[in-house]
Amino acid sequence: MSTREPRWLRWTLIVVALAFLIVNLALPLAAVFAGAFAKGLAAYRTAIVEHDAVAAMKLTLTVAAIAVPLNIVFGVAASWAVAKFDFPGKSILISLIDLPLSVSPVVSGLIYVLLFGLQGWGGEWLRDHDIKLIFAVPGIVLATMFVTFPFVARELIPLMLEQGRTDEEAARSLGASGWQTFARVTLPNIRWGLLYGVLLCNARAMGEFGAVSVVSGHIRGLTNTLPLHIEILYNEYNYVAAFAVASLLAGLALVTLVAKSALEWRFGDQIAGGGH
Amino acid sequence: MTVAVADLTKRFRDHLALDSVTLDVRPGEFLALLGPSGSGKTTLLRIIGGLDFPDAGTVSFAGEDVAGRPARDRRVGFVFQNYALFRHMRVADNIAFGLTVKPRSQRPGAMAIAARVDELLALVQLPGLGRRYPAQLSGGQRQRVALARALAVDPAVLLLDEPFGALDAKVRNDLRRWLRGVHAQMGLTSIFVTHDQDEALDLADRVAVMNNGRIEQVDTPDAVYNRPATAFVADFIGNATRFDCRLSDGAVELAGVRLPNTAPPAPDGPGVAFVRPHEFAIASAGTPGLAATVRRVTHTAAMANVEAVLADGRVVDIATATVAVDAGAAITLVPTVVRAYPA
Fold first, then answer.
1. Residue A144 has what pLDDT?
2. How far is CA B83 from the centre of its chain?
3. Greater confidence, A192 or B112?
4. Please, what's the b/e burial string for A30-66 (b: 16 or more CB within 10 A of its CB; e: otherwise)?
5. Would an 8 Å CB–CB cutoff place B82 in contact with chain A?
6. Do B98 and A175 touch (CB under 8 A)?
7. In the prediction, which pLDDT does A108 show?
8. Is B80 in CB contact (< 8 Å) with chain A?
9. Are B54 and B34 in contact (CB under 8 A)?
10. What is the ipTM score, two decimals?
11. Could you tell me if B77 lies within 8 Å of chain A, comparing CB atoms?
């Protein structure tokens, strides 16, 4: 794209944008790794193979592995319903999808304690049936799902609304079943939006602090996720360990970013051909 | 295959899109649904194709009721206004789609599908373009891919929604002729929706003119043009000018001129009359008729086009054999043919 803006204006904008990125993103990221390696490689290694750190890592990956796929299913289903059908209460559903984003994560966590905690509405029933939700892994999964629910749906709804229904109608008139239409027409049309939503959802699922903090109970080696573990280490003035574990979390974020870029590079022709 | 709809009614919230529509399409016929936007023509097409379902009425193919049958079980080929090509699939995969989604027992083998795709690419005059993506084709090429895709499953009925709407005039004319040929060659019954009267009159065996969810007239292009059944059809087709008139004894009294009414017989009383551009004679001022002033005269190969302003300020275009009038001249327009309907 050619432009007629004067050279000085272009360069000012570029410098401002770059400076912002460096100060707000690159520097903190570098600080995390600098802090992690402040006492050398051995201290770093000790911090991340320590029993509680490994347990926290496993729990974080487990929670993400459950919450993200479920949110993909619910997110696609909700977007499909909103974009392809007309039904009463549609605008209420759209507003509800945004609810987790507008509520503080701490409040989201408290909702679950209120519902399923011992003093809560479902608490006695759960205790009588020997089901533990709060201060246990299921509660962490539920809270994470609640907080990360909007990411897939919000990415897909505008995309599917813009694409309309005619592709699906064409598939149906050509004899495709509902499942064939979804798998061969709808899903390929939304795959890049879906991938982006999944990456955001995953990043938030692994990084969520507030809601998980309320329902977890902070039991070391059992209900501590990575972010909670980092906070504990930090509060114990164990800075090297805190930054070392934080670097793992940052590393996971970088991996998802690289994965996204790699996919875009590998399937770039299809993205271009697909117009999205 | 005969396509028949009877007493179709469809309501969208408080808008009556179809109001008790009855229409029979004969086997092998090329029928146009013509009307202004909002007249219900696309809704009718979608209901025939099984993409919408009526609130009341029946749809039957070859005498068999299909009203409750979804699109995938109707054997219709549907060509969408914006083609609705699957943008992530190559042209060949688009065309093959209807074959590859068949149940395993009816699905042709990969070789047979590839052969059929090549055959269809040749039919739509796009040989060798099977490996392109839709985004790499021109509008006219996409249109033909959409048609090939619809034809791949051997439909008995072909439904087209504004098939030429998004194309420029030159491409549109070429495609019209070509589509007409494909229709005859494949022995299809085809229905297409258009708001362009030239297209409908040029292409169709019969034209159904729609207005406000009703069919005003179903007839040959000649009859729709020369013998409009209702005031709406007379007004909509042929760029006519509308006048108030009086009907009496089968004749029309219009601005002091008395003419036979060429429209269907109407009771005596006040009426509305329609006169087309070539149905005026130009006479000198003072003659009985419509007083007007010439605003502009343009000449084309065989005709002169006179733009005249009536006393009430309306502008009338008159097509006439070359005459000697100049801009600014006062003249009288004398209608020579008139169609009038009860007001």
1. 92
2. 18
3. B112
4. eebbebbeeeeeeebeebeebebbebbbebbeebbeb
5. yes
6. yes
7. 86
8. yes
9. no
10. 0.83
11. yes
Q: Which of residues 170-189 of A touch B (CB under 8 A)?
A: 170-177, 180, 184-185, 188-189
A273 falls in which pLDDT band (50, 70, 90)? very low
Is B51 in contact with A172 (Cβ distance < 8 A)?
A: yes
Which DSSP category does B240 fall into?
P
Q: How far is B292 from B286, CA to CA, in rounded Å?
A: 10
The answer on pLDDT for A223 being more than 50 is: yes
Say which residue, B132 or B166, is predicted with more confidence.
B132
Tokens of B202: 């040029």
Task: State pLDDT tens for residues B186-221.
Answer: 889 999 999 999 899 999 999 999 999 999 999 999
Contact A62, A137 (CB under 8 A): yes
Interchain CB contact of B157 with A (< 8 Å): no
Query: What is the C-alpha to C-alpha distance for residues A213 and A56, in angstroms, rounded to an integer?
Result: 13
- Percent of chain A residues topping a pLDDT of 90: 26
Cβ within 8 Å, pair B72-A270 = no
Q: Cβ contacts of residue A165 below 8 Å, gap of 6+?
A: A83, A84
* Gyration radius from chain A CA atoms: 22
**pLDDT at B138 > cutoff 70:** yes
Q: Are A53 and A43 in contact (CB under 8 A)?
A: no
pTM over 0.95: no
Q: Is the pLDDT of residue B236 over 50?
A: yes
How far apart are alpha carbons A219 and B181 in whole angstroms? 77
- Please calculate the CA angle A114-A118-A123 and round it to the nearest 5 degrees: 75
DSSP class of residue A182 equals: I
User: What b/e sequence results for A83-92 when a residue is b if at least 16 CB atoms lie within 10 Å of its CB, and e otherwise?
Assistant: beeeeeeeee
Whether B45 and chain A come into contact, CB under 8 Å, resolves to no
Give the tokens for residue B89. 């699939």
Q: Is A138 helix (H, G, I), strand (E, B) or coil?
A: helix
- pLDDT tens for each residue of B252-276: 888 888 888 888 888 888 999 999 9
Question: From the DSSP assignment, how many helices (H) and strands (E) are in chain A?
Answer: 15, 0
Report the C-alpha gap between B311 and B14 in whole angstroms: 41
Give the pLDDT confidence score for residue A168 in this predicted structure.
Answer: 92
A112: buried, middle or exposed (CB in 10 Å: 19+, 13-18, 0-12)? buried
Percentage of chain B lying above the pLDDT 70 cut: 99
Task: Give SS3 for A137.
Answer: helix
- Three-state DSSP at B242 gives strand
